User: Fold this.
Amino acid sequence: MAESHPEQTRTAPAADPGPADGSPDAGTLPAGRFSDWLVAVGRAIDGEQGSDVACGACTACCTSSQFVHIGPDETDALAHIPTALTFPAPGLPAGHVLLGYDERGHCPMLVDGACSIYEHRPRTCRRTRGARGGAPAAWRARSRAAG
Assistant:
């Protein structure tokens, strides 16, 4: 007879009852294969490809005290952002600008909890980068070399 090891006995957590409306998939989104998404995010972070992010109600990037790089080719975004809110991007060629943030760390284009230029937002905002990886690859390379 096998010896019992009570410390190895675990009780499974109660099953998630699911959404309040009783439907099995209410509130879920078809996300596709996680491994494909993970590879794509890694490539976007490394600057190898873009990744258009549908923000939904999320404002994490918009409220995280980060600068938004806007390239000179982003004429649509630049047309929708007051030039008084931008300044030249240090260390980059002329025409590259940064959009700063307000005293609360919020993007000045965030109005009433939503992006006021969502359909015209800069490339940086469209990519999956998050607060830690928002800098273009050239900035990240320089900071690694300096640090």
Q: What stands out?
A: The longest strand covers residues 68-70.
